[in-house]
# Entry
Amino acid sequence: MNENDLLLILDKDPKSLSVLRRVAESLGCDCVEADSVDGLQEILSTRHPTIAILAVDGPDVDGLAMLRVLAQEVAQSATLLIGAVHARVLAGARRTAETQGLRVIGVANRPLDPAAIELLLTPYLKTTRPVALGELERALTEHELILEYLPKIDIRTEELKMQGVEALVRWQHPRRGLLYPRDFLGPMEEHHLMARLTDFVMTEAVRQTSQWRALGLPLEMVVNLSPKLITDREFPERVAVLLRENEVPAQQLILDVTEASSIEARDLMLDVFTRLRILGVGLTLDHFGTGVSSLTELYRLPFSEIKVDQALIADVVRVREAMLIVQAIANLAHTLELVVCAGGIETREMLGFVRNAGFDTAQGRFFSGPVKPAEIERLVRTWPCSDAAATGRWREMRS
# Structure
């Protein structure tokens, strides 16, 4: 049985609905929608949402009437209020909701910021039953783990061709349904299974790369590297053997590193990274611009690419300081002869900015979310096009 959290969206605005649906998908949540009091009551008669997202100013929707129904039926559900109204109006709606007993977790103005909405919702999602060691072992041995692939687009030319993909692991649990990394990476780490998980992802990704090469699709493959393997001196040789066995050039494999600053064995990490680069494997420093990423890593360690964090990219269209920082990062990367990738491209405006800033590649749901291998094969052969893509936004851009 699928035990995903349920998001209830009470809105009719197409742009807001699009953002909220993508957030629900990103968080691994189920999603239901209602645009009338009758529709809301029908949903609540059979389902109990974890979080309700209510537009106080939805077109042709009485937001306060829906608010009263929510208070009567599911007062314990977390509630997020949204609207394109003055902050004082949203504050008044919040006080009204709280007076009626609703647990309001925040308010958000339109246009909605996907990253900000996701950050607001995450703490209120239900904690599922802990994953047992036996379940994890079975997932690794019984082929319950699968890979989806997020397109990586070359944005340096007008063609915007798909240059590669990033491998993302999912768990098709026999009882809980499709689980996302946030549901099982912690237990994998706790039970010392991250090395096995990374080896699985690496093996499957390289095999898929080989299959695509046979079809005439020489796509780069990006694989996230567990910090545990960064200090395994034998890891580069295992990568070399895997590439040889599958007849995949090392230049097609890129390893994505997110926690280089936290590795204590700096000399050993440098040894492993250097061996990988000598093989021809690329190395990306991910989440650059936030967290613990350090400028000194760019010249002390042999990275070939940096990926600017999507939270920073999300701010470039409305925060001047973010715009200046992102432009400076792109300039610095090229000065150091590094490829620079933008993560989390959601809108035409975001894409336009990073292209003008000189970014080389980009990822994000503006192009496509993570998809199965067959969908990648279809997209790469038809990209770009006006009538077929993984999201409708591509059509908006092409029109």
Observations:
- Confidence is low (pLDDT under 50) at residues 385-399.
